[in-house]
Fold:
Amino acid sequence: MVPLPKRGILILSLCLLPLAPVVKAHTIKTDEEVGATFHLEPDHNPQAGEVALVWFALTRRGGAPIPLQDCECQLQIFQHPYTPDADPLLSPPLQPLSVESFADIPSAEIIFPNQDSMICIYPGEFLMIRTPTSFSLSTASR
Structure:
């Protein structure tokens, strides 16, 4: 397990309630330097024990994409509520994915262990020509 950096944490909260209505296909969040379009298949409503695809389309301020090879990123899945000293339930490897209008973005296949609420923590740093830049994005669970 890679230790979490002090800065640069993207927290994505997922309510995995099978009867919850789907109200939007993507979650979009920004901070000062990075924006992320997040998607979880199928329809942000994964089922326990079945493969779910999660992907993150990252962009720099101004809209330039951040491909996986330019991001030192990881994905860790925790039981909700999250506590900083908790061990992740899952830490799937990230793979590049080209989907919709996005190319070579970070993605992972996940098999969620149960239907409880989970927290996805996505710490990262995107690498620029001069200095690495950390990012921190979050969205609340329903």
User: Anything to note?
Assistant: The chain has one domain: 9-139.
